[in-house]
From TrEMBL:
<feature type="domain" description="Metallo-beta-lactamase">
    <location>
        <begin position="91"/>
        <end position="202"/>
    </location>
</feature>
<dbReference type="InterPro" id="IPR036866">
    <property type="entry name" value="RibonucZ/Hydroxyglut_hydro"/>
</dbReference>
<feature type="region of interest" description="Disordered">
    <location>
        <begin position="21"/>
        <end position="57"/>
    </location>
</feature>
<feature type="compositionally biased region" description="Basic residues">
    <location>
        <begin position="24"/>
        <end position="33"/>
    </location>
</feature>
<protein>
    <recommendedName>
        <fullName>Metallo-beta-lactamase domain-containing protein</fullName>
    </recommendedName>
</protein>
<dbReference type="Pfam" id="PF00753">
    <property type="entry name" value="Lactamase_B"/>
</dbReference>
<dbReference type="InterPro" id="IPR001279">
    <property type="entry name" value="Metallo-B-lactamas"/>
</dbReference>
Amino acid sequence: MYGDGTYMTNLYVYEKECSSDTKKSKKKSKKDKMTKDSNGGYRSLKGSTSNRRGLSRYGTNCERLGAVLVDAPPNLGPGFGDFIKTFLDSINADLEVMIVTHEHLDHMGNGNNVMAANPTLSRFVTGSRVAETIHAFQTIDYGNPRIREIMSPNPDYPRYEFTDVFEGEATYHFGNQTLYLKELDGHTPGNLLIWHDASKVLTNIDAPVFPKWSPFFELAIALNIPFAYKLFDEYRAF
């Protein structure tokens, strides 16, 4: 998990192209600057990722690793894509998948920089309602020059072509990692919930659970207040 204290993004690293010899380990160059942790794995750029139980064991028996990025907040800066690329290169990994949790630009507006810096990124995952809303925004921004001129002050609005769009809920397997995704309401229609079973981490980006916010301040500016209360029942199910 990486962020500036207000906006955060999750990065899940998974194993691929692994040999059956578990004793084989990748040689680390001096520039890797990795330290071994108590879980038998390696981590770098302290604070930028989680290496809890179940996440990939960097530098073990895998020639290459893959990664899933959740959202790309623009306030993390235009260099965020390069930051992700530099970190993943240090652990011999490629960014291959991006999950978009909802259509607000403060969570998906850095997509262009992430895509440009990570050419291996080829899969884009979201729910059907989020995809529909994003496509509507892109029609406004790109479908008619006059409408774009009037309504879109941001010429760098990212264009997303989703390769994986699910309805309701879905389970995705990325190498040795499994993510359960579910469409919910509350903050926005179809706002995604993400459950990573191996680490027991539940993520519901911009859900109405913030210190000193909930149940006030419009429940995190939720569009559906009644459902925002029901979200707590969803969380308890895990």
